[in-house]
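Quick one: structure for this chain?
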Amino acid sequence: SAPWEVKGAPKPEPTPWIAPFTMRKRTVGETIPPVQLSVPSGSPAVAKWTVSGLPAGVAASASGLISGTPTTVGVGTVEVAGTSAAGMIGTASAPWEVKGAPKPEPTPVIAPFTMPKMTVGETIPPVQLSVTSGSPAVTKWTVSGLPAGVAASTSGLISGTPTTAGVGTVEVAGTSAAGMIGTASAPWGVEGAPVIAPFTMP
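Got it. Here's what it folds into:
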């Protein structure tokens, strides 16, 4: 007789379990927050990360760190494979979306305007600043360079009575609710008050 022994089949090497991860929606040109791939406690460590399907401009390092700045609009799925030292492979995936860069807010277009002929001591006809048709509305008017005695209201109405002769240019800036600024300008001149020649009564 002779002894014999039959052993059970060896236990298979455990497969790495990739921790769930997400890819946040991003815009073309916007750097993504880095995503570190990992395994949870109790899982075999990953010795090699293989990552595919990332958007253009985004890549994964050898340590499983996903980072970069998307350069192209699109949607897709990133596929991740983590290989253990024993050669066992765990997989995971996550969808991603890259949107186009937002269109810039339009700038207000100030309608052309002219300053009337002005004379010292004479009230000017009011000038209402405005924007052209289809332009964003102006929520704040900033006006500078007006002659002394003439001013602009918050609604863009220029009025007053010049007190000093001279010439210059009024500079106008119109700011929209989105913070975009349109500009315009117009020259002005103020003549001195008329001088009445001396006269005598007969």
